[in-house]
Amino acid sequence: MFRAARRFRTSLGERTAGLRRRTDPEVRLERAILGAQDEHRLLQEQAAELHDERQEVETRLKAVTDEQRDLASKTAEARRRAAEAEAAGNPIKVSEHTAAAASFAGRLAAVERELAELTATVDKVAQASDEATATAVQRAWVLQEQLAEGHRLLEEPLDRPDPRA
Fold first, then answer.
1. Whether pLDDT at 141 is above 70
2. Which residue from 27, 65, 130, 135 puts its CA 20 to 30 A from 113's CA?
3. CB burial class (10 A; 0-12, 13-18, 19+) of residue 141?
4. In terms of Cα–Cα distance, which of 63, 68, 60, 66 is closest to 107?
């Protein structure tokens, strides 16, 4: 019977100690600080991901812009050669160069559509990246203030009696 009472008291003591740990202001404060740090870390990761996406889209935009210039140049060159062949009276070369110019012009139209879509995407991703970066920076300031306040509160002596006394 004494063993059962001792086990009950031990069990009750462990439960109340656990309850004290969960309700202790220091523990709650430490958990809040850790939560704020986790939130800030997630915001930084999101901002970094958006920044990486922005760079990828801008790189793709540059490649498509270069491709557009190249196709425009090839189209103009094929048209110039078709005009030269026509002036020289060579209908076979006129036909070949005209077909090449039409092919380049078709690819150019598709590239220009892609370029327009990428430009819109770059604008959206850039705005999202800028907003995420600004939010992360703002949250960093708030987190620094919270950490400073939290550390100040943790260093203050508590005005409550020690429960073990």
1. yes
2. 130
3. exposed
4. 68
Spatial contact of 99 and 74, defined as CB atoms under 8 Å apart: no
Token pair of 15 as six digits = 């439960």
How do residues 8-41 score in pLDDT, each as one tens digit? 556 655 555 555 555 577 777 788 778 888 888 8
CB-facing half-sphere around the CA of 77: CA atoms within 13 A = 7
Domain ranges of the chain: 26-154
Amino acid identity, position 31: R
Q: How many angstroms separate the CA atoms of 115 and 60, rounded?
A: 9
pLDDT in tens, 42-82: 888 888 888 899 899 999 999 999 999 999 999 999 999 99
Instruction: Tell me if 153 sits within 8 A of 27, measured CB to CB.
Output: no
26-154 CATH choice from 3.40.50.620, 3.40.50.720, 2.60.40.10, 1.10.287.2610: 1.10.287.2610
